[in-house]
Design brief:
It is a single chain. This protein has 111 residues and is mainly α. The chain is built from five helices and no strands. It is flat.
Length: 111
């Protein structure tokens, strides 16, 4: 085991002598800088493509097509939306007694 550790130690020492750490750090810093530039360029190109593909008035055109389809099937977009109650639930609800709630629950269970 000791001989194996000696061999590993010699190999690590040899590797450390061959690696120029300041040079490696410089290469890594340059890579990070170039990678950041690349990400910024990619984002700018993506935004440019998105802007070029977006057509002015497309939302108005979509609304027009949507309404035409609804007209063809004989529906209106407001038909699907029920009218909301004008009073709050708290005003409509009367406080129920504990016995009334229990009897309602029992009636539901018996049905």
């Amino acid at each position: 085991m000791a001989d194996a550790m000696k061999g590993v130690t010699k190999a690590l020492i040899s590797t450390n002598k061959q690696i120029d750490l300041p040079s490696l750090n410089k290469i890594m810093a340059e890579f990070m800088k170039e990678n950041e530039k690349n990400e910024i360029m990619q984002e700018m190109i993506g935004d440019s493509i998105d802007d070029a593909m977006e057509v002015e008035g497309s939302s108005e055109e979509e609304e027009l097509i949507f309404n035409q389809i609804l007209d063809e099937v004989g529906a209106k977009s407001t038909d699907a939306v029920p009218e909301a109650p004008k009073q709050s639930l708290a005003q409509n609800a009367e406080p129920a007694s504990k016995d009334q709630v229990q009897s309602d629950l029992e009636n539901r269970l018996n049905e």
